[in-house]
Amino acid sequence: GGIALWNKKDMYLMIGKFKSNKDLQDYLSIAYTEDGDAIPSRFEQDFSIDYYDEDFREAEYFDGELNHFPM
After folding, report:
1. Alpha carbons 16 and 60: distance in angstroms, whole number
2. What's this model's pTM, rounded to 2 decimal places?
3. E-strand spans in 1-71?
4. How far apart are CA 64 and CA 1, in angstroms?
5. Using one digit for the tens of pLDDT, what is the confidence trace for 22-66?
6. Are 5 and 57 in contact (CB under 8 A)?
7. Residue among 60, 53, 63 at smallest CA distance from 24
8. Which residue, of 19, 22, 44, 67, has the fewest CB within 10 Å?
């Protein structure tokens, strides 16, 4: 799976290995308390990201082996 984050001047590309699309989505999933406070995803925790706008995130899961990264 690959994850891309960007804003007007920067883009970050992260490539990882997940067993399924569900695993990728679980890794990115932000939970919320009963009060509506966000609980950071594993992705945010692993990369020490305090906040990012999910509207500027793309994540794609590719099933099977990849010999090259499709663009």
Report:
1. 10
2. 0.73
3. 2-6, 11-15, 31-32, 38-39, 57-60
4. 11
5. 999 999 999 999 999 999 999 999 988 888 888 888 888 888 776
6. yes
7. 60
8. 67
